[in-house]
Amino acid sequence: MATKPNGKSPVSSASDEKVMFFRDVSLGPHETQLRFRLIHFWEAWNPIKKTLIGLEMLLIDEQGTVIQGFISPSRIEKYLGKMERGKVYKLDNFYGSSNKSVYRVSDHAVTVSFSWNSELSDLQNITTPFDEDRFRFHTYEVFEANCDLKGDLYDVVGHMKLVNGHTLTESPVLDEVQIAAARHLLVHVQLHGGPVIKLYLWDQVATEFCRKFKSCETTPTVLLFEFLKWEFHNNTGTLALTSMSSSRGFMDYDVQPTIDYFGWLSSNPAIAEQVDAEVVTKRETMTIGELFSYIKQESAKEAFFECTATIDDVVHGYAWYYISCSGCHSKVTKGPTSLICTNNKCGKVNVDGVAQYMARLSVYDNSEQAVFVLLGDAGHALTGKHASELVSNYFEANANEGVDQEVPVPEALINTIGQSHKFCVKVTKHNLSGKTRALTVTKILPLDTPTETVTSAGTNISATSNETSQTGNDVCESSKSRVGAADAGSKRSGDNAKVEKAKRPKSGK
């Protein structure tokens, strides 16, 4: 039996075919045979030049060794028609090239590259089992130590806490068209023995997640994702996971690791309701001046921050609430005979209008003035009253008022003038584009509360849902006259009698 160019002896089969195991693959040309299961393959593109780099693969041999494969663009057509994920193949002749230094998906130092004389064919009469898959799980400490090094891509498994801002108990309805238009979705995942992390899924990976999520008979809980990139966002102090074009997701009973995790989670039901004390997604504290400086940076992205400020006034000339759909809380419009939800995903007619906060507050700190848009639960946290309750109280006290009567700003809001609070604010795409300087408030904390994280030990993280759903611009974007309220920058008025007014909500029935 002849030896290989590198001097190592291949394994011979009964038919005297020279077979090499992945552990013995070295650099240089090889006139021998590999046998493997094709776990996964994907196109690799240059994101800047928008050019195809080649077809990348993840392969596993009968010994359970995993190696990365590569086919150059000019050879893809020759092999692609034969390739099917999960099938077992034999490859005669190949070139061992150095594994790439960035975004690796295997620990092997060598990549199997298809060369000019490579021949790929199905492996018949398989007598040795080949593993179905192989995952690389690491501790959070490893992720944290290696983030932003652009080395390996990692696999994670955990249970989902939020999907696009909605808890699993809400049975999230994912709109494929909407997600495709947005090009991404956000999933909060609780790691086993680790923190809750943010998982950003992009483009086709987000679409595939949406389809898989919707195809489940019951709302899935466990999520495994492979080939993920860890990123540390310096401007927010956030460590997050980002999908790559190669990333794949598995849920509940898809693969053995999710089955094992699901079993563990089912036997520890209290775990599903808990959040580990060590949390990655911390909000950075900034002054108003620092927030505006951040927004002007070219590298600025949508993010959440904490800012301590004093309320100077309720901005005049804008409604302090809007009428929402009772189902999805989106803005409603008045139809011929009823109220109609403006959310295409909801699209309900004959809805009951529910008042929701959309108050604009003029605030200041030692560095700058700003306008904060107060929405939903943040308004309730500030005043102790729901907007619907305040509107109802007004009309109960003014029974003779007509349905089109404007409702003045309530005392509950006026009484907050002069108060200082720690505001959780979101920098949105509208801020980054210069469309408005008004900052959306997602949550309000007392001043003596330590710098909060998105989730903390023993707490329910549903509040985070508010951060990833509506913003002030989402609610009032249809009314161009309301955009840019921060530019008004009004100072506190000495005449509280001249308060801004809003129309009475109607059910349209």
Could you please describe the fold and organization of this structure?
Strands 3-4-5-7-6 form a five-stranded mixed β-barrel. The termini are far apart. The protein has helices at 76-80, 140-146, 176-182, 203-215, 256-267, 269-273, 288-296, 376-383, 387-397, 411-414, 429-432, 463-467, 472-476, and strands at residues 11-12, 18-20, 28-46, 51-60, 66-71, 88-98, 110-113, 119-122, 154-163, 166-167, 184-191, 196-202, 222-233, 238-251, 284-285, 303-314, 321-325, 332-334, 339-341, 353-364, 369-375, 406-408, 420-427, 439-445, 501-503. It has 13 helices and 25 strands. Residues 1-15, 276-281, 449-471 and 473-509 have low confidence and may be disordered. 19% of the residues lie in helices and 35% in strands. The chain has 509 residues and is of the alpha+beta class. Residues 489-502 have a biased composition (Basic and acidic residues). Belongs to the replication factor A protein 1 family. Keywords: DNA-binding, Metal-binding, Zinc, Zinc-finger. Residues 34-118 form the Replication protein A 70 kDa DNA-binding subunit B/D first OB fold domain. Residues 451-509 are annotated as: Disordered.
Blueprint of the fold:
Layout: E1 11-12, E2 18-20, E3 28-46, E4 51-60, E5 66-71, H1 76-80, E6 88-98, E7 110-113, E8 119-122, H2 140-146, E9 154-163, E10 166-167, H3 176-182, E11 184-191, E12 196-202, H4 203-215, E13 222-233, E14 238-251, H5 256-267, H6 269-273, E15 284-285, H7 288-296, E16 303-314, E17 321-325, E18 332-334, E19 339-341, E20 353-364, E21 369-375, H8 376-383, H9 387-397, E22 406-408, H10 411-414, E23 420-427, H11 429-432, E24 439-445, H12 463-467, H13 472-476, E25 501-503
Parallel strand pairs: 2-3, 5-7, 12-14, 15-16, 21-24
Antiparallel strand pairs: 1-2, 3-4, 3-6, 4-5, 6-7, 6-8, 9-10, 9-11, 9-13, 11-12, 13-14, 16-20, 16-23, 17-20, 18-19, 20-21, 22-25, 23-24
Helix pairs in contact: 3-4
Pfam family, one: Rep_fac-A_C
Keywords: DNA-binding, Metal-binding, Zinc, Zinc-finger
Domain Replication protein A 70 kDa DNA-binding subunit B/D first OB fold: 34-118
